[in-house]
Structure of Lipoprotein:
Amino acid sequence: MRNTILGFAALALAACQSAPEASQSAAPDPASNPAAIAPLSTLDPAAAAPGSATMDQSTTITPPAKGVPAKYAAFSGMWAGRLEGTSEAKVAVQTISPRGDVTATVAWGNLGDNSPGEAAGAGRIAGNTLKLKRLPNGADVSLVMLPEGTLAGTVALAGQTYTGPFIKQ
């Protein structure tokens, strides 16, 4: 009888308990929600936090010509993201040829042991992937166009691989 009463008491206690409310102030994880990435291009470069990605203001984007396939043209523009959810990064896909050849500029914030920087390079789009030739700083950059129109970015630098989502600015 005592065990039955204890069992009912335990059941009653369990029924009274509720899951803790989710914190309203918790920021969404940018890796799981690309739309949560703040539009970095709207930041005033003079007000940018130390260690953030800063792209030269003279970087220009040339709209794709009529002969550029739509699947290539989708890569054109300024993209902003966060590598490993913390390090700001920007990619300006500046030109795209009808064959998928591209020129781009990549800017990154503090990234592992690497200080913020910027490098220009060239590459090619094959299928849904834009791959840049090795940048002057030794980085290998690859961007995959996802069905929802965001990019999954990968940067390999100094023996480390950093990944994160990018959204068009």
